[in-house]
Amino acid sequence: MLGSSKPKRIDTKTTDTLIGASTICEGKIMSEASLRIEGQLHGDIECAGDITIGENAVVQSNIQARDVIIAGKVKGNIQTKGKLLVTSSGVLVGNIDVRSFIVQEGGIFQGSSAMQIASVSDKSGGGKVIDAQAHKQQKNEQQAASGGN
């Protein structure tokens, strides 16, 4: 409602912005909700939601988002809190810093990657993170202390 003093809560899971196939956009984009790009974009993106780059899209941008799906062409660095997916038609030239990275067969990635490690508090259920090598060493030490049995 116009003039309402109550701020509207934005759902980061819904796409509220579409840059259409016939659109050329230049400049920085900041969004609380998800974004879909089908046209051309030159400029950085900061998005609290997800970003989808369509098959015919051409994007020259550094991107920060929750999850990113690339089906078109992207030149720039990408940082996600979640997953980066390069589909079979996708091309990504740039460096990435993500938690999860998937390149489908036929997809192209040229750059360097860094993977974020999820902390125990980030995981639902509060399970323990176990270092397999340290666990094996601890088990071997326990067996040696108990006489090898």
TrEMBL record:
Pfam families: Bactofilin. Residues 123-149 are annotated as: Disordered. Belongs to the bactofilin family. InterPro entries: BacA/B. Residues 140-149 have a biased composition (Polar residues). This is Polymer-forming cytoskeletal protein.
